[in-house]
Protein backbone atom coordinates (compact mmCIF):
# COMPACT_ATOMS: atom_id res chain seq x y z
CA UNK A 1 0.00 0.00 0.00
CA UNK A 2 1.32 3.43 -0.93
CA UNK A 3 1.87 5.80 2.00
CA UNK A 4 -0.50 8.73 2.24
CA UNK A 5 2.30 11.29 1.94
CA UNK A 6 3.62 9.68 -1.25
CA UNK A 7 0.26 9.17 -2.96
CA UNK A 8 -0.64 11.56 -5.81
CA UNK A 9 -2.33 14.72 -4.60
CA UNK A 10 -5.81 13.87 -5.93
CA UNK A 11 -5.75 10.48 -4.24
CA UNK A 12 -4.96 11.21 -0.58
CA UNK A 13 -6.63 8.07 0.71
CA UNK A 14 -5.46 4.55 1.47
CA UNK A 15 -7.52 3.11 -1.34
CA UNK A 16 -8.66 0.27 0.89
CA UNK A 17 -11.94 2.01 1.58
CA UNK A 18 -13.00 0.51 -1.73
CA UNK A 19 -13.18 -3.20 -2.45
CA UNK A 20 -12.52 -2.81 -6.18
CA UNK A 21 -9.01 -2.60 -7.60
CA UNK A 22 -7.91 1.00 -8.26
CA UNK A 23 -4.89 2.17 -10.30
CA UNK A 24 -3.52 5.60 -11.15
CA UNK A 25 -1.46 5.78 -14.39
CA UNK A 26 0.85 8.22 -16.07
CA UNK A 27 0.14 9.07 -19.72
CA UNK A 28 2.79 6.58 -20.80
CA UNK A 29 0.97 3.71 -19.01
CA UNK A 30 3.24 3.43 -15.94
CA UNK A 31 1.61 2.88 -12.55
CA UNK A 32 2.01 5.64 -9.99
CA UNK A 33 -0.53 4.33 -7.43
CA UNK A 34 -2.32 1.02 -6.70
CA UNK A 35 -4.53 0.07 -3.77
CA UNK A 36 -4.31 -3.27 -1.99
CA UNK A 37 -7.06 -4.83 -4.10
CA UNK A 38 -5.18 -3.94 -7.31
CA UNK A 39 -1.87 -5.16 -5.83
CA UNK A 40 -3.54 -8.47 -4.94
CA UNK A 41 -5.08 -8.71 -8.41
CA UNK A 42 -1.69 -8.19 -10.07
CA UNK A 43 0.12 -10.53 -7.67
CA UNK A 44 2.48 -8.00 -6.10
CA UNK A 45 2.81 -5.24 -3.54
CA UNK A 46 2.07 -1.56 -3.89
CA UNK A 47 5.75 -0.73 -3.70
CA UNK A 48 6.90 -3.38 -6.18
CA UNK A 49 4.25 -2.42 -8.74
CA UNK A 50 5.02 1.29 -8.81
CA UNK A 51 6.45 2.49 -12.21
CA UNK A 52 5.65 -0.85 -13.83
CA UNK A 53 3.73 -0.95 -17.11
CA UNK A 54 0.01 -1.40 -16.55
CA UNK A 55 -0.28 -3.40 -19.79
CA UNK A 56 2.48 -5.88 -18.86
CA UNK A 57 0.43 -6.87 -15.78
CA UNK A 58 -2.59 -7.87 -17.87
CA UNK A 59 -3.07 -11.25 -19.57
CA UNK A 60 -1.35 -11.15 -22.96
CA UNK A 61 -4.56 -11.93 -24.85
CA UNK A 62 -6.27 -8.81 -23.46
CA UNK A 63 -3.49 -6.28 -23.92
CA UNK A 64 -4.66 -5.14 -27.43
CA UNK A 65 -8.09 -4.21 -26.02
CA UNK A 66 -6.42 -2.34 -23.16
CA UNK A 67 -4.20 -0.46 -25.61
CA UNK A 68 -7.23 0.57 -27.67
CA UNK A 69 -9.01 1.92 -24.60
CA UNK A 70 -5.89 3.66 -23.36
CA UNK A 71 -5.22 5.29 -26.78
CA UNK A 72 -8.78 6.58 -27.08
CA UNK A 73 -8.46 8.08 -23.61
CA UNK A 74 -5.16 9.78 -24.41
CA UNK A 75 -6.67 10.97 -27.69
CA UNK A 76 -9.26 13.00 -25.86
CA UNK A 77 -12.10 10.67 -24.92
CA UNK A 78 -13.29 11.24 -21.33
CA UNK A 79 -13.48 7.52 -20.50
CA UNK A 80 -13.03 4.07 -22.01
CA UNK A 81 -13.51 0.49 -20.88
CA UNK A 82 -12.32 -3.02 -21.66
CA UNK A 83 -12.58 -6.55 -20.30
CA UNK A 84 -9.47 -7.87 -18.61
CA UNK A 85 -9.91 -11.41 -19.78
CA UNK A 86 -10.21 -14.51 -17.60
CA UNK A 87 -8.12 -14.91 -14.47
CA UNK A 88 -8.28 -17.81 -12.04
CA UNK A 89 -9.53 -17.47 -8.48
CA UNK A 90 -9.41 -20.93 -7.11
CA UNK A 91 -11.22 -23.00 -9.69
CA UNK A 92 -13.66 -20.35 -10.85
CA UNK A 93 -12.99 -18.08 -13.86
CA UNK A 94 -13.46 -14.38 -13.19
CA UNK A 95 -13.77 -11.38 -15.51
CA UNK A 96 -13.00 -7.77 -14.63
CA UNK A 97 -14.57 -4.83 -16.42
CA UNK A 98 -11.98 -2.03 -16.39
CA UNK A 99 -13.14 1.59 -16.61
CA UNK A 100 -10.50 4.21 -17.39
CA UNK A 101 -11.11 7.91 -16.72
CA UNK A 102 -9.00 10.97 -17.54
CA UNK A 103 -7.97 13.57 -14.92
CA UNK A 104 -7.16 16.50 -17.25
CA UNK A 105 -6.16 18.80 -14.39
CA UNK A 106 -3.42 16.46 -13.19
CA UNK A 107 -2.56 14.81 -16.48
CA UNK A 108 -3.19 11.36 -14.99
CA UNK A 109 -5.47 8.41 -15.74
CA UNK A 110 -7.56 6.54 -13.19
CA UNK A 111 -8.57 2.94 -13.70
CA UNK A 112 -11.06 0.94 -11.65
CA UNK A 113 -11.86 -2.73 -12.14
CA UNK A 114 -15.31 -4.17 -11.39
CA UNK A 115 -15.66 -7.88 -10.90
CA UNK A 116 -18.39 -9.25 -13.14
CA UNK A 117 -20.72 -11.82 -11.58
CA UNK A 118 -19.68 -15.38 -12.20
CA UNK A 119 -23.12 -16.21 -13.52
CA UNK A 120 -23.15 -13.16 -15.96
CA UNK A 121 -25.18 -14.08 -19.04
CA UNK A 122 -22.86 -15.52 -21.70
CA UNK A 123 -24.54 -13.46 -24.39
CA UNK A 124 -23.64 -10.18 -22.68
CA UNK A 125 -20.04 -11.22 -22.15
CA UNK A 126 -19.76 -12.39 -25.76
CA UNK A 127 -21.29 -9.13 -27.03
CA UNK A 128 -18.75 -7.04 -25.09
CA UNK A 129 -15.91 -9.16 -26.39
CA UNK A 130 -17.14 -8.87 -29.98
CA UNK A 131 -17.51 -5.08 -29.66
CA UNK A 132 -14.00 -4.79 -28.30
CA UNK A 133 -12.74 -7.03 -31.12
CA UNK A 134 -14.32 -4.76 -33.73
CA UNK A 135 -12.75 -1.73 -32.10
CA UNK A 136 -9.36 -3.44 -32.05
CA UNK A 137 -9.73 -4.38 -35.73
CA UNK A 138 -10.63 -0.80 -36.63
CA UNK A 139 -7.62 0.60 -34.83
CA UNK A 140 -5.34 -2.07 -36.36
CA UNK A 141 -6.65 -1.13 -39.80
CA UNK A 142 -6.03 2.58 -39.24
CA UNK A 143 -2.53 1.87 -38.00
CA UNK A 144 -1.68 -0.35 -40.98
CA UNK A 145 -2.89 1.83 -43.87
CA UNK A 146 -0.35 3.56 -46.12
CA UNK A 147 -2.08 6.93 -45.75
CA UNK A 148 -1.50 9.23 -42.86
CA UNK A 149 -4.61 9.60 -40.65
CA UNK A 150 -5.49 11.91 -37.83
CA UNK A 151 -8.72 12.99 -36.15
CA UNK A 152 -9.66 16.34 -34.58
CA UNK A 153 -12.59 17.38 -32.44
CA UNK A 154 -14.54 20.56 -33.13
CA UNK A 155 -12.12 22.53 -30.97
CA UNK A 156 -9.31 21.45 -33.35
CA UNK A 157 -7.72 19.22 -30.70
CA UNK A 158 -6.00 16.17 -32.20
CA UNK A 159 -7.63 13.01 -30.84
CA UNK A 160 -5.84 10.41 -32.95
CA UNK A 161 -2.59 10.26 -34.95
CA UNK A 162 -1.60 7.00 -36.69
CA UNK A 163 1.86 5.59 -37.35
CA UNK A 164 1.97 6.74 -41.00
CA UNK A 165 1.12 10.28 -39.89
CA UNK A 166 4.06 10.09 -37.49
CA UNK A 167 6.36 9.00 -40.31
CA UNK A 168 5.19 11.63 -42.81
CA UNK A 169 5.38 14.52 -40.35
CA UNK A 170 8.30 13.32 -38.23
CA UNK A 171 6.29 14.10 -35.09
CA UNK A 172 5.53 11.45 -32.40
CA UNK A 173 1.86 11.16 -31.52
CA UNK A 174 2.60 11.91 -27.87
CA UNK A 175 3.61 15.46 -28.89
CA UNK A 176 0.40 16.24 -30.78
CA UNK A 177 -2.51 14.21 -29.34
CA UNK A 178 -4.56 16.44 -27.05
CA UNK A 179 -3.07 19.62 -28.57
CA UNK A 180 -4.79 22.10 -30.88
CA UNK A 181 -3.66 21.40 -34.42
CA UNK A 182 -3.11 25.11 -35.20
CA UNK A 183 -0.98 25.53 -32.08
CA UNK A 184 1.33 22.76 -33.31
CA UNK A 185 1.37 24.09 -36.91
CA UNK A 186 0.77 27.86 -36.68
CA UNK A 187 2.43 28.32 -40.09
CA UNK A 188 -0.58 26.55 -41.65
CA UNK A 189 -3.08 29.18 -40.49
CA UNK A 190 -4.59 30.85 -43.53
CA UNK A 191 -3.29 28.13 -45.88
CA UNK A 192 -5.37 26.09 -48.30
CA UNK A 193 -5.57 23.26 -45.74
CA UNK A 194 -6.83 25.73 -43.11
CA UNK A 195 -9.53 26.99 -45.48
CA UNK A 196 -10.66 23.51 -46.56
CA UNK A 197 -10.80 22.07 -43.02
CA UNK A 198 -12.99 24.97 -41.87
CA UNK A 199 -15.17 24.54 -44.93
CA UNK A 200 -15.79 20.85 -44.06
CA UNK A 201 -16.89 21.75 -40.52
CA UNK A 202 -19.13 24.58 -41.71
CA UNK A 203 -20.80 22.67 -44.56
CA UNK A 204 -20.62 19.15 -43.08
CA UNK A 205 -19.43 17.77 -46.44
CA UNK A 206 -16.21 15.90 -47.37
CA UNK A 207 -13.57 17.52 -49.57
CA UNK A 208 -10.50 16.36 -51.51
CA UNK A 209 -7.60 18.63 -52.48
CA UNK A 210 -3.87 18.78 -53.18
CA UNK A 211 -1.54 21.35 -51.68
CA UNK A 212 2.15 22.14 -51.28
CA UNK A 213 3.43 22.53 -47.73
CA UNK A 214 6.28 25.06 -47.45
CA UNK A 215 6.98 23.72 -43.96
CA UNK A 216 7.56 20.13 -45.14
CA UNK A 217 8.63 21.12 -48.67
CA UNK A 218 6.34 18.39 -50.01
CA UNK A 219 3.09 17.94 -51.90
CA UNK A 220 0.16 16.22 -50.16
CA UNK A 221 -3.14 14.77 -51.37
CA UNK A 222 -5.74 15.20 -48.64
CA UNK A 223 -9.27 13.85 -48.04
CA UNK A 224 -11.17 15.43 -45.14
CA UNK A 225 -14.44 13.93 -43.79
CA UNK A 226 -16.85 15.45 -41.25
CA UNK A 227 -18.08 13.47 -38.22
CA UNK A 228 -20.24 14.12 -35.18
CA UNK A 229 -17.09 14.67 -33.10
CA UNK A 230 -15.09 16.75 -35.61
CA UNK A 231 -12.89 15.84 -38.59
CA UNK A 232 -11.19 12.72 -39.94
CA UNK A 233 -8.22 13.45 -42.23
CA UNK A 234 -6.51 11.05 -44.61
CA UNK A 235 -3.39 12.34 -46.40
CA UNK A 236 -0.51 11.00 -48.50
CA UNK A 237 2.81 12.31 -49.87
CA UNK A 238 2.50 12.88 -53.67
CA UNK A 239 5.73 14.86 -54.15
CA UNK A 240 7.24 12.26 -56.49
CA UNK A 241 4.08 12.19 -58.61
CA UNK A 242 3.97 15.98 -58.85
CA UNK A 243 7.61 16.07 -59.91
CA UNK A 244 6.88 13.60 -62.70
CA UNK A 245 3.86 15.66 -63.77
CA UNK A 246 5.93 18.87 -63.79
CA UNK A 247 8.69 17.18 -65.78
CA UNK A 248 6.18 15.90 -68.32
CA UNK A 249 4.53 19.31 -68.59
CA UNK A 250 7.90 20.99 -69.15
CA UNK A 251 8.95 18.22 -71.51
CA UNK A 252 5.78 18.71 -73.55
CA UNK A 253 6.38 22.46 -73.78
CA UNK A 254 10.00 22.02 -74.85
CA UNK A 255 9.09 19.25 -77.28
CA UNK A 256 6.51 21.41 -79.01
CA UNK A 257 8.85 24.36 -79.49
CA UNK A 258 12.13 22.56 -80.29
CA UNK A 259 13.47 22.45 -83.83
CA UNK A 260 14.24 18.75 -83.35
CA UNK A 261 11.70 16.09 -84.25
CA UNK A 262 10.07 14.53 -81.17
CA UNK A 263 8.20 11.23 -80.96
CA UNK A 264 6.40 9.87 -77.89
CA UNK A 265 5.45 6.20 -77.97
CA UNK A 266 3.42 4.16 -75.51
CA UNK A 267 4.67 1.12 -73.59
CA UNK A 268 3.88 -1.01 -76.64
CA UNK A 269 6.09 1.10 -78.89
CA UNK A 270 3.30 2.79 -80.87
CA UNK A 271 3.28 6.52 -81.58
CA UNK A 272 0.95 8.61 -79.42
CA UNK A 273 2.34 12.10 -80.14
CA UNK A 274 4.67 13.94 -82.53
CA UNK A 275 5.60 17.61 -82.68
CA UNK A 276 5.54 20.08 -85.57
CA UNK A 277 9.26 19.61 -86.26
CA UNK A 278 8.65 15.88 -86.81
CA UNK A 279 5.99 16.67 -89.39
CA UNK A 280 8.30 19.15 -91.09
CA UNK A 281 11.16 16.63 -91.25
CA UNK A 282 9.25 13.48 -92.23
CA UNK A 283 6.08 14.78 -93.88
CA UNK A 284 3.92 12.70 -91.50
CA UNK A 285 1.35 14.43 -89.31
CA UNK A 286 0.02 13.05 -86.03
CA UNK A 287 -3.12 11.74 -87.73
CA UNK A 288 -0.99 9.50 -89.99
CA UNK A 289 1.68 8.57 -87.45
CA UNK A 290 -0.54 7.79 -84.43
CA UNK A 291 -0.77 4.08 -83.67
CA UNK A 292 2.16 3.11 -85.89
CA UNK A 293 5.62 2.01 -84.83
CA UNK A 294 8.40 4.49 -85.78
CA UNK A 295 10.46 1.79 -87.49
CA UNK A 296 7.59 0.73 -89.76
CA UNK A 297 6.96 4.36 -90.67
CA UNK A 298 10.50 5.70 -91.21
CA UNK A 299 12.99 2.93 -91.93
CA UNK A 300 13.89 1.89 -95.49
CA UNK A 301 16.13 -0.30 -97.65
CA UNK A 302 19.44 1.38 -96.65
CA UNK A 303 18.69 1.56 -92.92
CA UNK A 304 21.34 -0.36 -90.96
CA UNK A 305 19.92 -3.66 -89.58
CA UNK A 306 22.56 -3.63 -86.82
CA UNK A 307 21.46 -0.20 -85.62
CA UNK A 308 17.79 -1.26 -85.72
CA UNK A 309 18.59 -4.35 -83.65
CA UNK A 310 20.50 -2.17 -81.14
CA UNK A 311 17.44 0.09 -80.70
CA UNK A 312 15.10 -2.88 -80.27
CA UNK A 313 17.40 -4.47 -77.70
CA UNK A 314 17.57 -1.27 -75.65
CA UNK A 315 13.78 -0.87 -75.77
CA UNK A 316 13.26 -4.47 -74.66
CA UNK A 317 15.55 -3.82 -71.71
CA UNK A 318 13.81 -0.47 -71.04
CA UNK A 319 17.12 1.36 -71.43
CA UNK A 320 18.00 4.70 -73.12
CA UNK A 321 19.52 4.59 -76.61
CA UNK A 322 21.65 6.92 -78.75
CA UNK A 323 22.64 6.27 -82.34
CA UNK A 324 22.78 7.58 -85.90
CA UNK A 325 20.25 6.16 -88.31
CA UNK A 326 19.27 6.54 -91.97
CA UNK A 327 15.53 7.22 -92.19
CA UNK A 328 13.13 7.99 -95.03
CA UNK A 329 10.53 10.75 -95.25
CA UNK A 330 6.99 10.40 -96.58
CA UNK A 331 8.25 11.44 -100.03
CA UNK A 332 11.00 8.78 -99.98
CA UNK A 333 13.84 11.23 -99.30
CA UNK A 334 16.63 9.59 -97.31
CA UNK A 335 18.03 11.60 -94.43
CA UNK A 336 20.46 10.91 -91.61
CA UNK A 337 19.27 11.45 -88.06
CA UNK A 338 20.89 11.43 -84.64
CA UNK A 339 18.39 9.56 -82.49
CA UNK A 340 18.12 9.70 -78.71
CA UNK A 341 15.50 7.73 -76.78
CA UNK A 342 14.63 7.89 -73.10
CA UNK A 343 12.17 5.63 -71.21
CA UNK A 344 9.60 7.29 -68.92
CA UNK A 345 8.41 5.42 -65.82
CA UNK A 346 5.54 6.03 -63.42
CA UNK A 347 5.99 6.38 -59.67
CA UNK A 348 5.84 2.57 -59.31
CA UNK A 349 8.71 2.08 -61.76
CA UNK A 350 6.49 0.80 -64.57
CA UNK A 351 7.33 1.82 -68.17
CA UNK A 352 4.62 4.09 -69.57
CA UNK A 353 6.23 5.85 -72.54
CA UNK A 354 9.38 6.38 -74.63
CA UNK A 355 10.47 9.93 -75.45
CA UNK A 356 12.63 10.14 -78.61
CA UNK A 357 14.38 13.10 -80.25
CA UNK A 358 15.56 13.08 -83.87
CA UNK A 359 18.10 15.62 -85.12
CA UNK A 360 18.62 15.90 -88.87
CA UNK A 361 22.38 15.46 -89.39
CA UNK A 362 22.35 14.90 -93.15
CA UNK A 363 24.56 17.95 -93.80
CA UNK A 364 27.02 16.84 -91.14
CA UNK A 365 27.22 13.33 -92.58
CA UNK A 366 27.71 14.75 -96.10
CA UNK A 367 30.47 17.01 -94.78
CA UNK A 368 32.13 14.10 -92.99
CA UNK A 369 32.02 12.10 -96.20
CA UNK A 370 33.49 15.03 -98.14
CA UNK A 371 36.34 15.29 -95.62
CA UNK A 372 36.95 11.55 -95.88
CA UNK A 373 37.06 11.85 -99.66
CA UNK A 374 39.47 14.77 -99.38
CA UNK A 375 41.74 12.76 -97.12
CA UNK A 376 41.61 9.89 -99.59
CA UNK A 377 42.54 12.28 -102.42
CA UNK A 378 45.37 13.73 -100.37
CA UNK A 379 46.62 10.25 -99.54
CA UNK A 380 46.51 9.33 -103.24
CA UNK A 381 48.38 12.51 -104.13
CA UNK A 382 50.90 11.81 -101.39
CA UNK A 383 51.41 8.25 -102.59
CA UNK A 384 51.85 9.50 -106.16
CA UNK A 385 54.32 12.12 -104.95
CA UNK A 386 56.27 9.46 -103.08
CA UNK A 387 56.44 7.37 -106.24
CA UNK A 388 57.46 10.40 -108.30
CA UNK A 389 60.10 11.28 -105.72
CA UNK A 390 61.47 7.76 -105.74
CA UNK A 391 61.65 7.77 -109.52
CA UNK A 392 63.26 11.22 -109.56
CA UNK A 393 65.76 10.23 -106.90
CA UNK A 394 66.66 7.12 -108.86
CA UNK A 395 67.12 9.25 -111.97
CA UNK A 396 69.20 11.79 -110.08
CA UNK A 397 71.33 9.09 -108.54
CA UNK A 398 71.79 7.49 -111.95
CA UNK A 399 72.80 10.82 -113.49
CA UNK A 400 75.18 11.61 -110.66
CA UNK A 401 76.78 8.20 -110.90
CA UNK A 402 77.03 8.43 -114.67
CA UNK A 403 77.93 12.07 -115.18
CA UNK A 404 80.05 12.70 -112.13
CA UNK A 405 81.18 9.68 -110.16
CA UNK A 406 81.64 7.55 -113.27
CA UNK A 407 83.75 10.27 -114.94
CA UNK A 408 85.91 10.68 -111.82
CA UNK A 409 86.47 6.92 -111.53
CA UNK A 410 87.28 6.73 -115.27
CA UNK A 411 89.92 9.44 -114.83
CA UNK A 412 91.34 7.60 -111.81
CA UNK A 413 91.48 4.40 -113.88
CA UNK A 414 93.46 6.19 -116.61
CA UNK A 415 95.98 7.49 -114.08
CA UNK A 416 96.47 4.02 -112.65
CA UNK A 417 96.92 2.49 -116.12
CA UNK A 418 99.47 5.20 -117.01
CA UNK A 419 101.80 3.77 -114.38
CA UNK A 420 102.25 0.67 -116.56
CA UNK A 421 103.44 2.73 -119.47
CA UNK A 422 105.38 5.37 -117.58
CA UNK A 423 106.69 3.64 -114.45
CA UNK A 424 109.14 6.48 -113.80
CA UNK A 425 106.08 8.71 -113.05
CA UNK A 426 104.31 6.12 -110.89
CA UNK A 427 104.29 8.38 -107.84
CA UNK A 428 102.71 11.23 -109.80
CA UNK A 429 99.94 9.07 -111.33
CA UNK A 430 99.30 7.27 -108.04
CA UNK A 431 98.83 10.58 -106.27
CA UNK A 432 96.44 11.87 -108.94
CA UNK A 433 94.50 8.58 -108.87
CA UNK A 434 94.18 8.72 -105.08
CA UNK A 435 92.78 12.24 -105.20
CA UNK A 436 90.20 11.25 -107.82
CA UNK A 437 89.14 8.14 -105.91
CA UNK A 438 88.68 10.19 -102.74
CA UNK A 439 86.55 12.63 -104.75
CA UNK A 440 84.39 9.73 -105.95
CA UNK A 441 84.06 8.47 -102.38
CA UNK A 442 82.92 11.93 -101.20
CA UNK A 443 80.35 12.14 -104.00
CA UNK A 444 78.97 8.70 -103.16
CA UNK A 445 78.82 9.58 -99.43
CA UNK A 446 76.90 12.76 -100.29
CA UNK A 447 74.43 10.83 -102.44
CA UNK A 448 73.94 8.22 -99.70
CA UNK A 449 73.13 10.82 -97.08
CA UNK A 450 70.58 12.34 -99.43
CA UNK A 451 68.76 9.01 -99.78
CA UNK A 452 69.00 7.40 -96.34
CA UNK A 453 66.44 8.39 -93.70
CA UNK A 454 68.30 10.51 -91.15
CA UNK A 455 68.51 9.15 -87.57
CA UNK A 456 66.47 12.02 -86.11
CA UNK A 457 65.48 10.04 -83.01
CA UNK A 458 69.14 9.78 -82.02
CA UNK A 459 70.41 13.11 -83.36
CA UNK A 460 67.35 15.30 -82.85
CA UNK A 461 65.69 17.41 -85.53
CA UNK A 462 67.89 20.48 -85.11
CA UNK A 463 71.12 18.46 -85.15
CA UNK A 464 69.92 16.56 -88.23
CA UNK A 465 69.14 19.80 -90.09
CA UNK A 466 72.50 21.30 -89.09
CA UNK A 467 74.30 18.22 -90.40
CA UNK A 468 72.34 18.47 -93.67
CA UNK A 469 73.23 22.12 -94.09
CA UNK A 470 76.91 21.44 -93.31
CA UNK A 471 77.04 19.11 -96.32
CA UNK A 472 75.98 21.95 -98.60
CA UNK A 473 78.35 24.35 -96.91
CA UNK A 474 81.23 21.96 -97.66
CA UNK A 475 80.27 21.11 -101.25
CA UNK A 476 79.28 24.64 -102.23
CA UNK A 477 80.27 27.80 -100.48
CA UNK A 478 76.89 29.07 -99.27
CA UNK A 479 76.05 31.45 -96.51
CA UNK A 480 73.31 29.47 -94.70
CA UNK A 481 71.49 30.83 -91.62
CA UNK A 482 69.16 28.73 -89.41
CA UNK A 483 66.71 30.53 -87.09
CA UNK A 484 65.20 28.20 -84.45
CA UNK A 485 62.48 29.01 -81.86
CA UNK A 486 60.56 25.74 -81.40
CA UNK A 487 60.62 22.92 -78.85
CA UNK A 488 61.11 19.78 -80.92
CA UNK A 489 60.31 17.49 -77.95
CA UNK A 490 56.63 18.44 -78.36
CA UNK A 491 56.46 17.31 -82.01
CA UNK A 492 55.31 13.97 -83.40
CA UNK A 493 58.27 11.97 -84.71
CA UNK A 494 56.58 11.71 -88.14
CA UNK A 495 56.33 15.51 -88.30
CA UNK A 496 60.06 15.85 -87.58
CA UNK A 497 60.84 13.70 -90.64
CA UNK A 498 58.41 15.74 -92.80
CA UNK A 499 60.08 19.02 -91.78
CA UNK A 500 63.51 17.54 -92.49
CA UNK A 501 62.47 16.28 -95.95
CA UNK A 502 60.82 19.58 -96.91
CA UNK A 503 63.97 21.52 -95.99
CA UNK A 504 66.11 18.97 -97.83
CA UNK A 505 63.87 19.19 -100.93
CA UNK A 506 63.83 22.97 -101.06
CA UNK A 507 67.58 23.35 -100.40
CA UNK A 508 68.25 20.87 -103.23
CA UNK A 509 66.05 22.96 -105.53
CA UNK A 510 67.95 26.11 -104.54
CA UNK A 511 71.36 24.49 -105.10
CA UNK A 512 70.37 23.18 -108.53
CA UNK A 513 68.39 26.09 -109.97
CA UNK A 514 68.56 29.28 -107.90
CA UNK A 515 72.25 30.32 -108.33
CA UNK A 516 71.96 31.71 -104.81
CA UNK A 517 74.70 32.62 -102.35
CA UNK A 518 72.58 33.07 -99.20
CA UNK A 519 69.90 30.82 -97.67
CA UNK A 520 67.72 31.55 -94.64
CA UNK A 521 65.77 28.78 -92.87
CA UNK A 522 63.40 29.54 -89.98
CA UNK A 523 61.36 27.28 -87.68
CA UNK A 524 59.05 29.28 -85.37
CA UNK A 525 56.03 28.67 -83.11
CA UNK A 526 53.44 31.34 -82.11
CA UNK A 527 51.26 29.27 -79.77
CA UNK A 528 48.81 28.02 -82.40
CA UNK A 529 50.89 27.31 -85.52
CA UNK A 530 54.37 26.07 -86.40
CA UNK A 531 55.90 28.06 -89.26
CA UNK A 532 58.58 26.70 -91.59
CA UNK A 533 60.24 29.22 -93.92
CA UNK A 534 63.01 28.75 -96.53
CA UNK A 535 64.20 31.77 -98.55
CA UNK A 536 67.14 32.54 -100.87
CA UNK A 537 68.64 35.43 -102.87
CA UNK A 538 68.76 33.51 -106.16
CA UNK A 539 67.45 34.27 -109.63
CA UNK A 540 63.83 33.60 -108.73
CA UNK A 541 61.16 32.46 -111.20
CA UNK A 542 57.65 33.06 -112.51
CA UNK A 543 55.21 31.28 -110.23
CA UNK A 544 52.82 30.46 -113.06
CA UNK A 545 55.31 28.25 -114.80
CA UNK A 546 56.97 26.57 -111.87
CA UNK A 547 54.31 26.29 -109.18
CA UNK A 548 53.34 22.75 -110.20
CA UNK A 549 56.85 21.34 -110.61
CA UNK A 550 57.76 17.95 -109.15
CA UNK A 551 59.85 19.41 -106.33
CA UNK A 552 57.11 21.76 -105.12
CA UNK A 553 54.49 19.02 -105.62
CA UNK A 554 56.45 16.81 -103.24
CA UNK A 555 56.65 19.61 -100.67
CA UNK A 556 52.93 20.38 -101.03
CA UNK A 557 51.95 16.73 -100.55
CA UNK A 558 54.09 16.32 -97.44
CA UNK A 559 52.65 19.51 -95.92
CA UNK A 560 49.03 18.55 -96.76
CA UNK A 561 49.39 15.30 -94.82
CA UNK A 562 49.44 17.42 -91.62
CA UNK A 563 47.06 20.19 -92.79
CA UNK A 564 49.96 22.49 -93.65
CA UNK A 565 49.17 25.63 -95.73
CA UNK A 566 51.87 26.33 -98.37
CA UNK A 567 52.59 29.82 -99.75
CA UNK A 568 55.37 30.87 -102.17
CA UNK A 569 56.59 34.32 -103.14
CA UNK A 570 59.02 34.67 -106.09
CA UNK A 571 59.71 36.67 -109.21
CA UNK A 572 62.66 36.80 -111.64
CA UNK A 573 65.77 38.33 -110.07
CA UNK A 574 64.25 38.56 -106.54
CA UNK A 575 64.88 35.11 -105.14
CA UNK A 576 62.22 32.82 -103.63
CA UNK A 577 60.47 32.62 -100.25
CA UNK A 578 58.61 29.45 -99.23
CA UNK A 579 56.46 29.33 -96.07
CA UNK A 580 54.31 26.56 -94.58
CA UNK A 581 51.95 26.93 -91.56
CA UNK A 582 51.07 23.77 -89.58
CA UNK A 583 48.27 23.86 -86.92
CA UNK A 584 49.47 22.53 -83.58
CA UNK A 585 46.54 20.07 -83.39
CA UNK A 586 48.07 17.96 -86.20
CA UNK A 587 51.77 18.15 -85.38
CA UNK A 588 52.07 18.17 -81.58
CA UNK A 589 52.02 15.25 -79.20
CA UNK A 590 48.54 14.80 -77.60
CA UNK A 591 49.58 16.26 -74.24
CA UNK A 592 50.70 19.51 -75.90
CA UNK A 593 47.70 20.15 -78.16
UniProtKB/TrEMBL annotation:
<dbReference type="InterPro" id="IPR011712">
    <property type="entry name" value="Sig_transdc_His_kin_sub3_dim/P"/>
</dbReference>
<keyword id="KW-0902">Two-component regulatory system</keyword>
<feature type="domain" description="Histidine kinase">
    <location>
        <begin position="396"/>
        <end position="586"/>
    </location>
</feature>
<dbReference type="InterPro" id="IPR003594">
    <property type="entry name" value="HATPase_dom"/>
</dbReference>
<keyword id="KW-0418">Kinase</keyword>
<dbReference type="Pfam" id="PF13426">
    <property type="entry name" value="PAS_9"/>
</dbReference>
<dbReference type="Pfam" id="PF02518">
    <property type="entry name" value="HATPase_c"/>
</dbReference>
<dbReference type="InterPro" id="IPR000014">
    <property type="entry name" value="PAS"/>
</dbReference>
<keyword id="KW-0067">ATP-binding</keyword>
<dbReference type="Pfam" id="PF08448">
    <property type="entry name" value="PAS_4"/>
</dbReference>
<dbReference type="InterPro" id="IPR013656">
    <property type="entry name" value="PAS_4"/>
</dbReference>
<keyword id="KW-0808">Transferase</keyword>
<protein>
    <recommendedName>
        <fullName>histidine kinase</fullName>
        <ecNumber>2.7.13.3</ecNumber>
    </recommendedName>
</protein>
<dbReference type="InterPro" id="IPR035965">
    <property type="entry name" value="PAS-like_dom_sf"/>
</dbReference>
<feature type="domain" description="PAS">
    <location>
        <begin position="247"/>
        <end position="318"/>
    </location>
</feature>
<dbReference type="InterPro" id="IPR050482">
    <property type="entry name" value="Sensor_HK_TwoCompSys"/>
</dbReference>
<keyword id="KW-0547">Nucleotide-binding</keyword>
<dbReference type="InterPro" id="IPR000700">
    <property type="entry name" value="PAS-assoc_C"/>
</dbReference>
<feature type="domain" description="PAC">
    <location>
        <begin position="319"/>
        <end position="373"/>
    </location>
</feature>
<feature type="domain" description="PAS">
    <location>
        <begin position="134"/>
        <end position="178"/>
    </location>
</feature>
<dbReference type="Pfam" id="PF07730">
    <property type="entry name" value="HisKA_3"/>
</dbReference>
<dbReference type="InterPro" id="IPR001610">
    <property type="entry name" value="PAC"/>
</dbReference>
<keyword id="KW-0597">Phosphoprotein</keyword>
<dbReference type="InterPro" id="IPR005467">
    <property type="entry name" value="His_kinase_dom"/>
</dbReference>
<dbReference type="InterPro" id="IPR036890">
    <property type="entry name" value="HATPase_C_sf"/>
</dbReference>
Amino acid sequence: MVALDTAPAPFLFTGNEFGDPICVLHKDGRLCFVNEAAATLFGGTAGSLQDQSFFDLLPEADRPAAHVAFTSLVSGQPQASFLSGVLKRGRLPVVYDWLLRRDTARGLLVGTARLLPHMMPAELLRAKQEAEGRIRHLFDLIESIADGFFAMDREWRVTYFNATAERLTGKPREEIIGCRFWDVYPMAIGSLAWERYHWVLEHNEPVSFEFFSPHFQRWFETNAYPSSDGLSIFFRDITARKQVEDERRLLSLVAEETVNAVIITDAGGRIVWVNKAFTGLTGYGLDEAAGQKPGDLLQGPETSPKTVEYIRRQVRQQQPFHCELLNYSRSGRAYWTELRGQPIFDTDGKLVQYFSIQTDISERVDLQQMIINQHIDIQKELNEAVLRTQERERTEVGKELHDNVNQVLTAAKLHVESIRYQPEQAAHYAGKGTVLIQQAIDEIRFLSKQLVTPPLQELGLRAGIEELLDQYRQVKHYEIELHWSICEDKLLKEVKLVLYRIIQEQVNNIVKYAQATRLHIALEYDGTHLSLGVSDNGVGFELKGHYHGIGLANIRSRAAAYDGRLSIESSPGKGCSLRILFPKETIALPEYR
